[in-house]
Amino acid sequence: MARTSTAVGRRNPALTWALRLVVIGYLLMLVAWPSAYVVRHTFADGFTSLATAFADPDVVHALLLTAQVAVAAVVINTVFGVGVALLLVRTRFPGQRALSALVDLPLSVSPVVVGLALVLVYNPRTGWFGPWLAEHGVDIIFSRPGMVMATCFVALPLVIREVVPVLEELGEDQEQAARSLGAGTRQTFLRITLPSIKWAVVYGVVLSLARSIGEFGAVKVVAGNISGQSVVATVLVQQKYQNFEQDTAYAVAFVLALVAVLCLVVVALLRPSEGER
Amino acid sequence: MSIEVRGVSKRFGDFVALDDVNVSLPTGQLTALLGPSGGGKSTLLRIIAGLDSADSGTVTIEGTDATHLPPQRRNVGFVFQHYAVFKHMTVAKNVAFGLEIRKRPKAEIKKRVDELLDLVHLGQFAHRLPSQLSGGQRQRMALARALAVEPSVLLLDEPFGALDAKVRKELREWLRRLHDEVPVTTVFVTHDQEEALEVADEIVVVNQGRIEQVGTPDQLYDEPANDFVMGFLGETTTLEGRMVRPHEIELSPVRTAHELDGVVVRLLRVGFEVRLTVLVDRTGEEVQVVTTRAHARALGLDVGDVVHLSPASVLV
Lengths: 277, 316
Prior knowledge:
Oligomer: heterodimer
Radius of gyration of chain B: 24 Å
Number of strands of chain B: 17
Number of strands of chain A: 0
Helix content of chain B: 25-40%
Shape of chain B: elongated
């Protein structure tokens, strides 16, 4: 007689369903409902609030600024992240464990602290490097380099933590085989290593992008927050909300959430294609 | 001499992998580096390839001092135990890799890849991905890939170690035939003495970071330099404190001079041979004896029987 095979000591179905309800309810209250509320508020009057928001030059500027800062930070973090991942997996040097721990620091330190630390080091009047840089005409704090730095800092581990396990699993055999066949370091990286880790890099990039777009605390501290000049989208949402322009605040919040959801969709679409390989 | 290794030492922390190794590997031959796991044979091969660096000593390949050359400039082909296939490339692309790196003309690459794939009997798999091949096919592809660049030496690190017994046997016969067809200087590492005896022209026995003996399979088997080599190249047992091979002990039902009496305490039939454990009266030794099934039947051997032993030829 054909039977469905089950594990020994299977839980009773009522308990299983109760646990499922708890999980679903938890996610609903914490994530789904509040997100849905933002969407509902944005479209309460059809597309009017979105249209109003995009008619405001400050909003357009803030979104563009967020995009520019996020893209710059993601590019820097991708190059740096792949480099550090190679350093951590493929080489042995004293202080390696310390470096590995340091890479995770941005995950545990509050972004506001990051912002303050950057201000402390780079501010043009009393910072460590700030005055010297200001003399040479380079502004970090209250300008874009500072905002990019703050965003890089908070998104630092994401590419590295995606690439490191893939590199470890990959092993060195293929790279050594390429070397023995005459490939130099650069050729080995471009032809063997990079194609093997490309999905991990893409995944790390998407996560970094989502994180960079959503960054608030660190960027707020280092940016001057002057309307139309140095206000990123997240900070703009807060300012508009406090200035009783709630419709605009919800509209921009919706755009940010939409981009984040798109990032997640891209990731979800990428993951299975990696499994097929 | 194709490869000259002089005074090579290598340590990993406290572990001495190679201890002042000197060896010459002749041109055009198939040489086996044979020894137990952890004995240093793979390390020696990787140092020859440039994948590991020696702490001291020199490596000369075809007359060129290669000690400080990176692997890509030594012109060696290397085949790994776990194939090291380029997973994201087709079989043909894998084989073409070294030629593309050397920027050979496309037509030449295609011709050479086709030839090599035919040589390793993978012609019809050219456009498959390595994940669609069996272990034996992957290793043949890896071999074709290494041969593509016309290396001055071909180095194989336990090439059949990850394959099952039947495929392993097929592949080593195939490797021997391939070497006769394409006589490139080949060095392969193995811990399987049968594999080394069957395939190699010359065997280098490596143990505990040292070379124990270098010689042809016959020399090593018939004139082992020491107990280690004798023990490693085949089964041994002790008769009157001397090392002998179990099948070189003669059994007779009748007692003559210089023979030892013993009682059969265990008897095991394995295929065509019969393995006996004989307890020798005078010395109290348990001696292993191997004889043929026919001989054992002719003597009517069984557990508890008294037999007389004499060494057919005494070695060492």
